[in-house]
User: Which sequence fits this backbone?
């Protein structure tokens, strides 16, 4: 499956210039039926939210109200950054007008936000992390937005979103926006993974890579080693292994989207394991790890909790966290082999001691 990225310095062809996101979604679905139109319109709305957030970020040091904190604490127990609150509002306002989405579930909101004027006609729920890596904002380092689209399967009066508590294989589409040197949008509707780059002169996301394939293995390992002593011995064993073996490179940017994006194109593995303080890890399943797991599997890679596929995990509440090992399949399997080895030793010890 050839990657059709244009050569360095070569102006993209007119045909490529015209491959906008909404056109690409319709092409992908080879249908102009209601579902295709809806998904295309939904992706267009996400693109609009991304453009608004990208514009705000690009002027963050120049205008008031972008950097710093709002003074509030969100459902995660984290101090809310002004840009978190702004980005969350952007997603709400661009989807309010969509008529397509009846409910929005976000990292910044304890309960899902209903758009009464879109219910019950709105057939989709959008789950999203409006700003991923917000600890990078005030240092002007890359951040992202992560999104997942699911079918609306009923109205839950108490806001517990029970119908969303299903495996990640129920996602219709997923992706992220990376606010880096350029703003990129990477998505999948279950037909491969494709990336678009925002061309500020056109104000359009233009196709930049199609059918992206995650290399089977890579030299990059991406993890916050500052948590080393809080990890299970099996993860420490893995890090000791990469320290002792040539050919591994540590890369950790503090923003999941940026770290995953690098691995999607170059191969390797990103880990955020559970720890003594947080056995279930830090990252949230429904709007952080499951959307990226959807992309990883579509690109020929893997995403694991260490013992099962992330896409098979069924959440028991909206903001559930999960350990994650994601990236090239050989690298993920290597990490898992250390976990399995420790489990085997532990079983043996229990057997011999009983
Ligand atoms: O600072 P730590 O503990 O390494 O955590 C960094 C991780 O947390 C995150 O920032 C997630 O949190 P936010 O979505 O709240 O920013 C990830 O992007 C990143 O991988």
Assistant:
């Amino acid at each position: 499956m050839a990657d059709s990225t244009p050569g360095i310095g070569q102006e993209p062809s007119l045909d490529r210039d015209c491959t906008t996101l909404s056109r690409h979604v319709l092409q992908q679905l080879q249908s102009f039926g209601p579902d295709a139109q809806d998904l295309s319109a939904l992706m267009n709305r996400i693109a609009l939210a991304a453009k608004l957030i990208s514009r705000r970020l690009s002027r963050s040091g120049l205008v008031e109200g972008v950097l710093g904190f709002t003074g509030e604490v969100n459902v995660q127990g984290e101090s809310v950054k002004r840009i978190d609150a702004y980005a969350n509002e952007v997603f709400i306002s661009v989807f309010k007008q969509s008529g397509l989405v009846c409910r929005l579930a976000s990292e910044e909101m304890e309960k899902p936000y209903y758009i009464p004027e879109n219910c019950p006609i709105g057939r989709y729920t959008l789950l999203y992390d409006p700003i991923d890596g917000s600890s990078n904002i005030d240092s002007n380092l890359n951040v992202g937005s992560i999104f997942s689209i699911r079918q609306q399967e009923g109205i839950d009066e108490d806001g517990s979103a029970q119908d969303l508590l299903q495996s990640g294989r129920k996602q219709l589409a997923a992706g992220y926006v990376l606010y880096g040197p350029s703003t990129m949008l990477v998505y999948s509707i279950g037909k491969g993974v494709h990336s678009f780059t925002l061309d500020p002169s056109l104000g359009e996301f233009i196709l930049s890579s199609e059918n992206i394939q995650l290399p089977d293995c890579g030299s990059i390992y991406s993890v916050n080693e500052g948590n080393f002593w809080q990890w299970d011995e099996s993860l420490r064993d893995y890090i000791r292994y990469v320290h002792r073996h040539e050919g591994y490179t540590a890369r950790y940017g503090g923003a999941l989207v940026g770290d995953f994006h690098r691995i999607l194109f170059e191969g390797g593995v990103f880990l955020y394991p559970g720890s003594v303080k947080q056995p279930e890890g830090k990252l949230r399943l429904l709007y952080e790890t499951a959307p990226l797991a959807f992309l990883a599997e579509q690109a020929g890679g893997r995403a694991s909790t260490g013992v099962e596929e992330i896409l098979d995990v069924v959440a028991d509440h909206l903001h559930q966290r999960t350990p994650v090992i994601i990236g090239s399949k050989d690298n993920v399997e290597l990490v898992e082999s250390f976990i399995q080895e420790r489990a085997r030793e532990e079983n043996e010890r229990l057997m011999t001691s009983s």
Remarks:
- Residues 78, 107, 129, 132-135, 224, 254-256, 282 surround 1,6-di-O-phosphono-beta-D-fructofuranose (CB under 6 Å).
